[in-house]
Amino acid sequence: MQTEKWTDYEIIASGDGEKLERWGSVILLRPDPQAIWRAPFDMSKFPKLNARYVRSSSGGGAWQVLSPFPQEWQIAYSDVKFLIKPMGFKHTGLFPEQAVNWDTMREAVIRRGGRPKILNLFGYTGGASVALAKIGARVTHVDAAKNMVDRCKQNATISGCPEDGIRYIVDDCNKFVAREIKRGNFYDGILMDPPSYGRGPNGETWKLEDNVCALVEQTAKVLSDNPLFFLINSYTTGLQPTVMENILKISLPQGNVKAYEVTLPTSDRGIKLPCGCSALWQEGV
Questions:
Q1: 255 closest CA partner among 245, 263, 264, 265
Q2: CA atoms of 217 and 219, how far apart (whole Å)
Q3: CATH superfamily of the domain spanning 96-282
Q4: Cα gap 56→59, rounded to integer Å
Q5: What residue spans define the domains of the chain?
Q6: Contacts within 8 Å (CB) and 24+ apart, 204-212
Q7: Cβ count near 193 (within 10 Å)
Q8: Which of 34, 49, 177, 219 makes the best surface tag, with the fewest CB within 10 Å?
């Protein structure tokens, strides 16, 4: 599954563990472990390259500025806008491949009509939250990182989302869901993009493969009686689409489930760049 609708984003070329991208008018070169094929040319010498993320031998890395560009800038997708900024660990503040999932969820909301309630867990900078709020959904956006939630607010503002379109929550997603169960709050649509690996507030280790089943089962308890969708995305290579499909089939009410690899088209040699996978549950579709 991939979207062909981006005009402000483009993968110019890929290979040798990197991808050359255009974000609006800014050209960035970033690592990509999936791009193991040979690059068509030396991408580090691309004439318009603005910055490159270079990994260090000790782990991590840093941005190497090659030609001037704004500290942050905007790009648009359809009727929504996002702020882009080179950040730590090669991030830019947006995962453009997720646009295919935004479109799928927006179609479900439009079919339903009204203002359905949507829960976005591990919401990051709010790509999905903004896309859904823009068409009238009432979104609860949850992320443990305050700076990411603040960025979601900025994206919602520049996109012209309704003021009551997004409820912003800085919290641990598991704890938030547990409280919502106790409060009896329900949602018509749920999406989540949990991290592959992390540590909790008390140093406990989080591995998605070990926790995803319990996470989905717990979160399913806040689905409304007339739900639209339950979508989970993963960048964990060990979680194949069929595994995620099975988890949704087991954990959710009877419905239709499909799982798929998420990719981005490139302008180079017709290559599709793999970007993780998603599984989508919908009732009666």
A1: 245
A2: 6
A3: Vaccinia Virus protein VP39 (3.40.50.150)
A4: 5
A5: 96-282
A6: 208/234, 208/236, 208/239, 209/236, 209/238, 209/239, 212/239, 212/244, 212/247
A7: 22
A8: 34
**Tens digit of each residue's pLDDT, the chain (285 residues):** 999 899 999 999 999 999 999 999 999 999 999 999 999 999 999 999 999 999 887 778 999 999 999 999 999 999 999 999 999 889 999 999 999 999 999 999 999 999 999 999 999 999 999 999 999 999 999 999 999 999 999 999 999 999 999 999 999 999 999 999 999 999 999 999 987 776 655 666 667 777 888 999 999 999 999 999 999 999 877 788 999 999 999 999 888 999 999 999 999 888 999 999 999 999 875
On whether the pTM is more than 0.85, the answer is yes
Task: Tell me the CA distances in angstroms from 245 to 52, 71, 269, 274, 278, one per residue in order.
Answer: 36, 40, 31, 18, 9
| Cα distances (angstroms) measured from residue 114 to each of 22, 111, 138 | 36, 9, 10
